[in-house]
Amino acid sequence: MLGVGVIGGASALLVVVSRNVVHAALYLVVTLLSVAGTFLLLGAEFLAWAQVLVYVGAVVVLILFGLMLTRAPIGPMPQESEVGKWYALVPSGGLFAVLAYLTYSAFGTTRIDLQIVRTSALAEHLYIVWAFPFMVLGFFLTVALIGAIVIARREEGEGPLPPEDDALHEPTFTDATSSPHRRASAGVPEEVRP
């Protein structure tokens, strides 16, 4: 149990400090697998495999898919200053220490008696009592995925056509030196350009 916790904590720390978004997503896979391993050690096999299927198999793939679709920068991200990391590390480390102490002092000596719960009873509770929230969540995920595809497929320069009145008043260029873009590419000096 301690080994799984150490692996999960180290990979979660790497998710936060990684400068490459794809590497951070892969570290997130290890973190979520360690959570599934914790569920297995606690005897909750259904939750462990649901964790693997839903989070590792779907959410991380959705993150990577969204990164590829939206053309987000996936390389190392520039850091403005290294000092800012230390300013963030001190309060977050202190908060972690306080929460770990409070959790251990409240539940350190508590023993949990495991009760066998059939998967069918758990599935009945999840998919009958909580059926509507599952459908709403699926709807929102579908809308988010369609929105990512629409944003990603919009090419640069695309958009609505200009009104016909504006199209009639656009200047027309006849020779290579009259267009502003062609003047620059033709090597005409700035002083000579009209």
Distinctive features:
single chain; about 190 residues; mainly alpha; Four Helix Bundle (Hemerythrin (Met), subunit A); about 0% strand
Characterise this structure.
The protein has a domain at 1-75: Up-down Bundle (Four Helix Bundle (Hemerythrin (Met), subunit A)), CATH 1.20.120.1200. It is 69% helix and 0% strand. The protein contains 8 helices and no strands. It has helices spanning 2-17, 21-41, 45-69, 83-107, 119-129, 131-153, 164-168, 180-186.
Secondary-structure map:
Layout (H helix, E strand, L loop, with lengths): L1 H16 L3 H21 L3 H25 L13 H25 L11 H11 L1 H23 L10 H5 L11 H7 L8
Question: What is the count of helical runs?
Answer: 8
For the report, how would you describe the main beta sheet?
none
Detail the poorly predicted runs: 182-186
Provide the CATH top-level class of the domain at 1-75.
Mainly Alpha
Task: Give the helix/strand class.
Answer: mainly alpha
Q: Kindly report the name of the CATH homologous superfamily of the domain at 1-75.
A: NADH-ubiquinone/plastoquinone oxidoreductase chain 6, subunit NuoJ
Radius of gyration: 28 Å
Question: Strand-and-helix sequence, N→C?
Answer: HHHHHHHH
Strand content: under 5%
**Quaternary status of these chains?**
single chain
User: What would you say the CATH architecture of the domain at 1-75 is?
Assistant: Up-down Bundle
What would you call the shape? flat
Mean pLDDT: 76
Describe this structure in a few short sentences.
The chain has eight helices and no strands.
